[in-house]
Each structure stands twice: as C-alpha cells, then as structure tokens.
Structure prediction request, 305 residues.
Amino acid sequence: MDRRTFCITLPGLGAICTITSSVISQDKSILHQRRIPSSGEEIPAIGLGTWIQFDVPNGDPEMDQLQTVLQQMMDHGGKVIDSSPMYGRSEVNVGQLTQELRNPDHFFYATKVWTSGKEAGKQQIAQSMARMQRDQLDLLQIHNLLDWSTHMKTLIDLKSSGKIRYIGITHYTDSSHHQLADVIKSNPEVDFVQCNYSIEGTHADEFLFQTAQEYDVAVIINTPFNGGSLFRRVGGKDLPDWASDLDIRSWGQFFLKFIISHPAVTCAIPGTSNPKHLIDNMGAARGKLPDMEIRKVMKDYFNKV
Ligand SMILES: NC(=O)c1ccc[n+]([C@@H]2O[C@H](COP(=O)([O-])OP(=O)(O)OC[C@H]3O[C@@H](n4cnc5c(N)ncnc54)[C@H](OP(=O)(O)O)[C@@H]3O)[C@@H](O)[C@H]2O)c1
Prediction:
C-alpha cells in the first residue's frame, strides 16, 4: 500500500493536505476489492442493482441493452448482482441473460426473501434459484427485515446444506438502522447487512456501520445515488477541479468513491440499465480513493453545490 501526502486546493479554504493510506495503487488497472469479514473472500467494491432497471417484459428490445450491461460488468471485473422477488421480472432476466454470457459463474448472485411465513419463504427461495438459474445462491438476504426471525432459521439451514453461501438482512430507510444493528448483535449467523447510504444521507455512518464492523458483518450499500436524485441535485454543474486528483471523471464516480472509501463498506450496488453508466460506475472501483479527511471535503463541497 502506498502512503503519501495528498493535497487539494479549495477556493477560499486554501490547500488541505493529508497523509493518506488510501492510495491503494498508482496502477489504475487495479480493481478495489473488499474482504467479506466472515470468510475472507474478496468481492469488487462496485456491484449492480437490478430493481426497476431489470424489470423488463419478456422479449422487450431493452433486453439487448441489459445484456450489454452484464457483459460490460464482466469485462470490467464487476461481480455482485443484487435482485429480489420484489423486483418483477428482474430475477428471471438476470438468470436468462447471465446464462447467455460465456461464463455465468463469474458473478456473485445476491437475492432476497420477501414474504411472511416459513413455507412461503422456502418456496420463494426455491423459485428465486429457478428464476436465476442457479443451484446455489451466493447471498440470500431478508428483504426489509420482513418476518426476519422466521426466515433466519431457514437461511441457516440452507447455508449448512450448501444451497446458499452467505446470509444477509436489508433495508432502505434511516429509521431501520437501529433494528438492523440489533439483529446483527443477536444473530451471529448474519454475514451481510444491506442499507441505504450516500453522500447526501450518512445516517448509517453513525447508527449502523460501527456495529457491522464490530460483529464482522459485510456492508452492501443500496440506493447509492439516492435513487438517482443526486444527479438532479448537481444538475449540469462541473466537478471540482481537484476531483481529477482522485481519478474522478464524473459525478457518479464522485458519489461512489465517497461511499466505497468508508472502511465499513464492502460494496455499493448502483442500479443501471445503461451500459455507459455501468462502465462509469465500475470506474469508481479503480484509481485513488479519498481518506476520511478528504471525504469530509467532498461532503462539504456537495452540500454547497
Ligand atoms: N430494501 C432493499 O433491499 C433495497 C431497497 C432499494 C434498493 N435496493 C437495491 O439497490 C439498488 C440500487 O438502488 P436504486 O436502483 O433504487 O437507486 P440508485 O442506484 O441510487 O440510482 C439509480 C438511478 O441512477 C441512474 N444512474 C446509475 N448510474 C448512473 C451514472 N453513472 N450516471 C448517471 N445516472 C446513473 C439510473 O439510471 P440509468 O438506468 O439510466 O443508469 C437510475 O435512475 C437497487 O437496484 C436494488 O438492487 C435494495
């Protein structure tokens, strides 16, 4: 790991310099990977969300575009694909489109259980495996904590029988962070927590990340662009001059680098159906990353835009 002095100059504030250990490599070709604490396995710090983006009718011309998104993801080293039975045809389309690629096993398949009751949960998980065309799912998460204590037992059984590799819990609101933390504390079987976090909304930083770190739980960030509203907020405004010092070429990379540079964060899953956006997002997993001090500067800058 390269340690060096990193300086950025801000109008009215002068130069801010810090010794940073976050310059992982000068080689921009290296993809930032993060360790899953419970296993030591590494996954790329940027993945793909499929909520609205992959809920496309069978035979729709947009399927070709989604195929390109997945192909580009593979070509750029991305692995984590997040879906849910809540996302309409997303699981089916992920299954079909990945099977059409040369190596479907390249990906890390994450989906969720989103129903009430033990039998309904088991049936839904079996259905997800069939829809995603996988004999084993990498990560099965309890969506929005719905009937979580029932499904936790099922997931523990599925993990011990090898049908799933990791257990997760998810939510998307700030008000859930306390409960997510409580579930982590009382259930050592939890490998992943998925939550909302962005440069605009950092509640998880205060109320969830520390627990995840203490209990060796990996953190996936959903809605990293706050559903896309961050782009509307910055409108057509230019990036700050110093963004290029962090190998940031777009607002998308600005937002994502802010997230994945947090030490608690394992992976962010921006949703996109646009191959250009996919490449842009994967670019955030390469090059320099800000340290804690520079992250504060990024947040201050964003708040003033
Ligand atoms: N409770 C839960 O478990 C939960 C809740 C919410 C979300 N999630 C997961 O998190 C994923 C991400 O959340 P999200 O999709 O709601 O919101 P998001 O990732 O914050 O934002 C997606 C929006 O940003 C746009 N976008 C993506 N990359 C871009 C780029 N580089 N430049 C400009 N625009 C870009 C997308 O449009 P384009 O398609 O045009 O790129 C889309 O409109 C979901 O897909 C889902 O997998 C989970």
Q: What stands out?
A: The longest helix spans residues 118-132.
